[in-house]
Write a structure and sequence with these properties.
about 230 residues; mainly alpha; Serine Threonine Protein Phosphatase 5, Tetratricopeptide repeat
Length: about 230
């Protein structure tokens, strides 16, 4: 039996968020360790708190559309301390704001691109700075190509996952020039950026919600993939 092509509706968005929460939970300590090596070590705890708040807003608001699910999620992140939580919150808010009518691969691509522009404007980060932008930018490009080609949502999310994962992996070899990792210079080289990793996990969770296949996190092993 073939799996029906997912529709970007409230039910799918809820599955995506729940898959993201579950995937992040399995990697939270590893992400905290990455942050300890290059920052202040609070990344895992802050985003765990943000995801808990996000689920609380989803439960309380009972959103009935894809857009409203991500508006609820954005509130959970925007009401979290630190820097990364609010940046993710604004990104999720742009995912929701891009929807005008039925959500499609095109609106997903537009939302990811709009959120990228917001983060770059506020944080001043570019590709190569070893931040979440290194994963969002290639994912946005992959989604734009998928939207232009008329690729179904599930395939588009697979492509975004691959692109975001490759982007996150690239941060191992980058010298951070933004965020706390920039303060420690060469000490942070060889360490994956936790924000970029989280972006990759987010898209992997979306692909998992679409296909029913658990996200692959083996690439997070200390030794780089060959």
């Amino acid at each position: 039996m073939t799996t029906p092509e997912p529709v970007l509706d409230a039910a799918f968005a809820r599955r995506w968020v729940e898959e993201f929460r579950a995937t992040f939970a399995t990697q939270a300590e590893r992400l905290a360790d990455l942050d300890r090596q290059a920052g202040d070590g609070d990344f895992g705890a802050n985003l765990t708190s943000a995801l808990t708040r996000a689920q609380g807003y989803v439960d309380a608001d009972d959103p009935q559309t894809y857009a409203d699910v991500f508006f609820a999620v954005s509130k959970g992140f925007l009401n979290t301390g630190g820097t990364s939580g609010p940046l993710f919150g604004m990104w999720f808010r742009d995912l929701a704001k891009a929807v005008d009518g039925p959500a499609t691969t095109q609106t997903l691509a537009a939302g990811v691109a709009a959120g990228l522009a917001t983060i770059q404007r506020l944080a001043g980060a570019e590709v190569g700075d070893s931040t979440m932008v290194d994963a969002i930018d290639p994912a946005a490009q992959a989604l734009a190509r998928a939207a232009e080609s008329g690729v179904p949502v599930g395939d588009a999310l697979d492509a975004a996952t691959t692109a975001a994962t490759d982007g996150a992996e690239s941060t191992r070899d980058l010298l951070a020039s933004r965020g706390r990792a920039s303060y420690v210079g060469e000490v942070a080289r060889g360490v994956l950026d936790p924000g970029a990793v989280t972006v990759a996990l987010f898209f992997a969770a979306g692909a998992g919600a679409a296909t029913g296949v658990d996200p692959d996190t083996g690439w997070l092993d200390p030794a780089p993939r060959r």
